[in-house]
Amino acid sequence: MDANVKRTGRYSQRLPEQMPHCRHARRKVLNSYIFQNHRSLLNLIWISFFFIAFVTGVVRFLFFGETQIFGEMMLAMFTLSKTAFDIALGLTGVLALWLGIMRIGERSGFVQLLTRGLTPLFRRLMPEVPADHPALGCIVMNLSANALGLDNAATPLGIKAMQELQELNPDKETASNAQILFLVINTSAVTLFPVTIFTYRAQMGAVNPTDVFIPLLIATYISTLTGLLAVALVQKINLFDRVIFAYVAGFTGFIAALLFYFSGLDQAAMRDQSALLSHLILFTLVIVFIVGAMVKRVNAYEAFIEGAKEGFRTAVTIIPYLVAMLVAIGVFRASGALELAIDALRSGIDALSLDHRFVDAIPTALMKPFSGSGARAMMVDTMQTLGADSFAGRLASIVQGSTETTFYVLAVYFGAVGIKNTRYAAGCGLIADFGGILAAIFVAYWFFG
């Protein structure tokens, strides 16, 4: 029998990290599913920025006599294209560092450790999936990879998990309960290692790029819990099941302990302690990865170099996307359209006698369910305009890490298996997004307000 295959019943379950179809599906997945299903929506958003900017510019020119408006918009195009390149170039070293560290974690077995820890929970959450079915392995591996920020590994594993669940689905064009639950948790999954957010904050000049880690962890957990509760309510999942309750209570207890600890501090001490704890946790994870590599006799240096090379390639790859989105957003802002929208929302908040500082981060929140690259560009634009350590800059970073791109994941994962009737998947996903955004605003005021 193949040494990489474990027989746990009538199903043959190959460890996901060793499955050739998971490892080699990456190029096919990215080329076939992601761009085909997502580019039309992103194309519409991108074009809308230019058209709205043009219409706004025409109105300001014809009715208000602002003859310089189109010059400002052209200047924004050239300036932001250079800025996007400079940002991507500056990201190279930091991305190489963190992706190198993450590759050590991947090789050291940390993902597999998370998988073994979470498998009993998903056996109870998805009773229609047999305990020895390979879908469970891919589901938990996907969520574990997402938690560690291993996007390249998470996407093919997510596609594979959806394909395995489709084999159990009696109606091939309608999403099953298990598929919906997996998708909603996937779009709101807890991020333990938000590498890209730290990277962008470092590049944009944040004094402590990781000072948003604890607030982000709280917000992303609330997003996940909100999504789980929404699906459980619809599917009538018994959350008081002994195993499910133990997991939820354990995770919630950890977050509650953090909240309790920080609630006793004043805001200055809270920021300092949050930064200290964030640095301690993240560096401890690095040491755990290295120790795990030593135990498993993995060459940590070579693993780091391999990941660092991927970081370099990633930095080069994102240049066109960053240029496209930052230029579009820059034109949109230079025309005054973005400011008009934000001012209108700010006026509404003022009418309710509420603090309106969170409004500057709302564009990131509104973009996030539709486009990850668009939301990332909005976050960068906010940090560049107002400062990485401004309240809005920190809040945009927390929002960016608190949820996933719901419609993107829905299109990719369901499109991969031909699901046409998604039932309540989008609704529950958006509820999770809304919960995460509200939590992000709350913790941002608490820690940085």
Concise synopsis of the structure shown:
The protein is mainly α.
End-to-end Cα distance, whole Å, is 60 Å
Oligomerization: single chain
Number of spatially distinct domains: 1
What percent of residues adopt helix (DSSP H or I)? over 70%
Q: Count of DSSP helices? A: 18
Largest sheet entry:
2 strands, antiparallel
Count the E strands.
2
Residue runs with pLDDT of under 50 for 5 or more positions: 1-38
Topology:
Layout: E1 5-7, E2 12-14, H1 20-23, H2 26-64, H3 69-107, H4 110-125, H5 134-147, H6 151-168, H7 177-187, H8 195-203, H9 213-235, H10 242-263, H11 267-295, H12 300-334, H13 337-351, H14 362-367, H15 372-386, H16 391-402, H17 406-417, H18 425-448
Antiparallel strand pairs: 1-2
What does it look like?
It is a single chain. This protein is mainly α and about 450 residues long. The chain has one domain. It has helices at about 20-25, 25-65, 70-105, 110-125, 135-145, 150-170, 175-185, 195-205, 215-235, 240-265, 265-295, 300-335, 335-350, 360-365, 370-385, 390-400, 405-415, 425-449, and strands spanning about 5, 10-15. A two-stranded antiparallel sheet has the order 1-2. Strand 1 (about 5) and strand 2 (about 10-15) form a beta hairpin.
Key attributes of the depicted protein:
449 residues, single chain, globular, 18 helices, mainly alpha, two-stranded antiparallel ribbon
